[in-house]
Write a structure and sequence with these properties.
Elements lengths: L7 H14 L7 H9 L6 E5 L5 H7 L6 H8 L2 E4 L7 H14 L5 E5 L2 E2 L8 E2 L2 E2 H8 L5 E5 L1 H5 L12 E2 L1 H5 L4 E3 L6 H14 L12 H4 L63 H11 L6 H4 L4 H5 L3 H8 L3 H7 L2 H9 L22
Parallel strand pairs: 1-2, 1-3, 3-7, 7-9
Antiparallel strand pairs: 4-8, 5-6
The protein binds ligand FSX and FE3-S4 cluster.
């Protein structure tokens, strides 16, 4: 371990996290340590196509261990277009040389979708199309991991009207891929996938959509920790989203539901189009469900009403109630959470689930 930047304590802790992600006993940690420190780990060549680079950013924001430790020490990344020092022709040469040196041995990690329209002309790197680079490099890999929803299924670059003809790697060039999805995916899911490969000499079991079961086998909903009750009625995609965000925070800090934002299903095939718009429908059901039976505000306005409706918001609501778009602008998420959770809201809004949930805001 001496030559590694990570100290022994944090490396063991990280290996414990890998075991937990893979659903393995902590007794497997010594084997994981051996797998990740053996000299004959396959090299990883990491390519970038049409994307926002958020997938790499997710790695760059990891703090313990840091990006250099993960990419260089744990994953044996030999080529990475975002963080490499070389640029221009030197970078192109490095890529081609690395592929030639490790043909048939390397694991190719691909970020981003591949523009295919007009022979790939809408995505160029160093004078070559991304499509050409993908067709040249990826078939020489032992395994290809599509990292992120863009590389797996097209993602944001493939959103309608998709003038570039962006596609996921499998659809673009016809190779099988292991898909680790999310926009961005959690870095640990990539590390755990490669660790699983090192441990078993084969990739982890995959669903029919190419995603490993260990990280994409259960829905967000199955482990949702929200105390506010299910937000599916407010357009949360958690019940239809197969990801393990609830088991590991991003940046060791937080994730969508923890910050009280609904899941937008960023890891699913069809994201972005199939899940958009993300917000408007969330407000319309609340508006139409609660409003018709609400007791007229002027009859019931109390001090506790002003917690949500003070400062003129109340009047503005009345003025815009026939226009859900303006209503959405006038309100904010905190109001929705209060309506869902504050028992006193049920005085005016009998259907509001707040009438049945624990009161979390003091009256
Ligand atoms: Fe896509 Fe990744 Fe979203 Fe961004 O590389 S999965 S747009 S976080 O960067 O590809
Ligand atoms: Fe994406 Fe939903 Fe997780 S939006 S990051 S799959 S909580």
């Amino acid at each position: 371990m001496e030559q590694h930047r990570m100290n022994r304590r944090s490396f063991l802790k990280y290996c414990g996290g890998i075991a937990a992600t893979l659903g393995l006993s902590q007794a497997m940690v010594p084997q994981i340590v051996r797998a990740l420190t053996t000299d004959n780990r396959p090299p990883v060549i990491w390519l970038h196509f049409a994307e926002c680079t958020g997938c790499s950013e997710a790695f760059l924001r990891a703090t313990d261990p840091g990006v250099a430790d993960i990419l260089l020490d744990v994953l044996n990344v030999t080529y990475h277009e975002t963080i490499q020092v070389a640029c221009g022709e030197k970078a192109e040469h490095n890529r081609d040389q690395t592929v030639a040196d490790y043909a048939g041995e390397f694991i190719c990690v691909v970020e981003g979708a591949i523009p295919t329209a007009n022979n790939g002309a809408y995505g160029m790197i160093g004078g070559r199309t991304m499509l050409d680079i993908a067709q040249t490099v990826i078939p020489q890999a032992k395994h290809t991991i599509a990292l992120g929803t863009c590389a797996a299924y097209g993602g944001l670059p493939a959103a309608a009207p998709n003038p570039t003809g962006a596609k996921g790697v499998k659809d673009a060039i016809g190779v099988s891929t292991i898909n680790i999805t999310g926009c961005p995916p959690h870095p640990m899911n990539l590390v755990a996938t490669i660790t699983s490969y090192l441990l078993n000499n084969q990739m982890p079991a995959l669903r029919s959509d190419g995603r490993p079961y260990f990280c994409h086998g259960d829905t967000i909903h199955s482990g949702c920790p929200t105390p506010h009750g299910c937000m599916e009625g407010y357009n949360c995609k958690g019940p239809r989203t197969y990801n393990n965000c609830h088991q590991q925070a991003y940046n060791e800090e937080s994730w969508c539901i923890q910050v009280e934002h609904q899941c937008i299903g960023c890891s699913e095939p069809g994201f972005w189009d199939a899940h958009a718009p993300f917000y408007n429908p969330m407000w319309v059901p609340m508006f139409s469900t609660y409003r018709p039976t609400a007791i007229p505000h002027e009859d019931q306005k109390t001090a506790s009403c002003n917690r949500c409706h003070g400062g003129g918001i109340f009047e503005e609501e009345e003025a815009v109630q026939s226009d859900p778009r303006r209503f959405q602008q006038a309100m904010h998420r905190e109001h929705e959470i209060r309506l869902m959770t504050n028992r006193s809201c049920a005085n005016c809004h009998p259907e509001a689930p707040g009438g049945t949930y624990e009161q979390i805001i003091d009256d």
